[in-house]
Amino acid sequence: MMNVAKCVGEVVRSQQGVAAGTIAEYSRYIKKSSKANVSTVVLSLLILGELGRFIDMSPQHDIFNNVIEHFSASEEGVRTAAAFSAGNIAIGNLHQFLPAILRISESDPSKRLLSLHALKEVVTHGSHGQLEPVADQLWIPLFRNSTSDTEESTRNVAASCLGKLTTTQPSRYLPQLHTHIRDESPAVRATVISAIRYTFADSTPSYDELLAPLVMDFLGLMKDSDLTVRRLALSALNSAARTKPHLVRDHLPALLPILYSETVVKPDLIRTVQMGPWQHK
C-alpha cells in the first residue's frame, strides 16, 4: 500500500490540478461516519500523508483531526498509517500542526509512541529550512520522552529523531548530547549514545570535524555500569566502524580491549528460566 500511496503522491505532485479532488476523495474514507474497510482506511491515510508533505492542508483542518482520531483505532495497521499521515501532513504546515502532535506526545501516554512516530516523519522528511525554526521546539520534548519512558521502543524512536536533528545542526546539538554522557540517570546516558548511533548512520562528512574530538567520550560508554548503555555503545561502535571508520581507526588501541572484554561470559548476566522440572539458561 505504501508504494501505491507514493505513486498517487507523485502523480498529484506533477498534476496539482487534481489535488483538491484527490484529497476530497480519500479524506471521506477516514471520517468517523465512514463505513470503509480497514484496507481502504489505511490506504487513504497513507495517500493523505504523501499529499500533505507538499500541500498545506490547514484549510481542511478536519482532515488532520480525523487522522489523529485514528490513533485510537483497534487495528495496529490503521494506527501506524495514522502516525505516518499525521507527521507528513504536519510537514505541509509545521506552525499549524506540529504543536498538536507535541501535545499528544507529552499528555497522552497511550498515544506517545504513535506521536513520536509522527514526529519521526517530520524530522526524516522535513527539509533543513523547515526544521531549523522548530528544532528547539522538537528537541526538548523528544529528549524528555526518551529519558522518562521505560519502554525501549519509545526511547529508540525519540533517540532516532534526536540523532537526525543533531545532523541538521551539529554545532548546536552535539555539545548538548556531550554534556549528558556523565548524567547519573542510565536512561539519559542510553538516550545520548542511541542518538549518537543514529548520527553515525549519516555517512556524509559535513560534521565529522565536530564529532571527531568527542567520539571517544561517547564510545567510552562501552565501559558504563549499566548493561543497556553498554549494549547501545557497542552498537554505536559497530555503526561508526561501518559508516565513519576514519573517526575510530586511530582509537582502536583503546577501543578493542573494551570490546574484547565484553565477549567474556558473565555468569551474573545469564538468565535462568524454569520450565516445569527443567531449568534452561
From TrEMBL:
Keywords: Repeat, Ubl conjugation pathway. Residues 247-281 form the TATA-binding protein interacting (TIP20) domain. Gene3D superfamilies: Leucine-rich Repeat Variant. GO terms for biological process: SCF complex assembly. The keyword Cytoplasm does not apply. Belongs to the CAND family. This is TATA-binding protein interacting (TIP20) domain-containing protein. It comes from Scleroderma citrinum Foug A.
